[in-house]
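quick one before i forget lol
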Amino acid sequence: MMAEQKHYCNPKDGKLNFEKPTEFKDAVKMLPEGRHFVTIKKYSQRRSNGANAYYWKIVIPYFCQEWGLDPKMKSEGEYMHIDILGQELRQIPDELRPGKTKTQQTSKMTGSEFWKYIHQCGRLYFHNFNGAFPPPKTLGYDINKK
């Protein structure tokens, strides 16, 4: 199985204008004979450093506190992130096992997907503990910049 390749392009007048056309052509030349498929999707930036900091400094500690865990202990914060919130909020279909799910990695989320996930965390927190996270901007988290 070949590794996934990404080639960025900007469509104009019904044509794809690749940012690095030579690299794209070289990649196509390396493809083995046979049938292939190509997926084209809108580019979205990964989450910002501010969003990531807000998640690990606010969201995870709030949940840990309610569960009696110490978020300063890396293993307990990761337990909350992976085993609790991952199982509750980040289940996606597993392409390799039809009918089964897997936990979506937050590092693979786009910025908008990550903020949607943080909002889901907020709803879960409110539902379970009748509380809310402080808004990121009031704490000085720049949620838009990398």
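fyi The longest strand covers residues 9-12.
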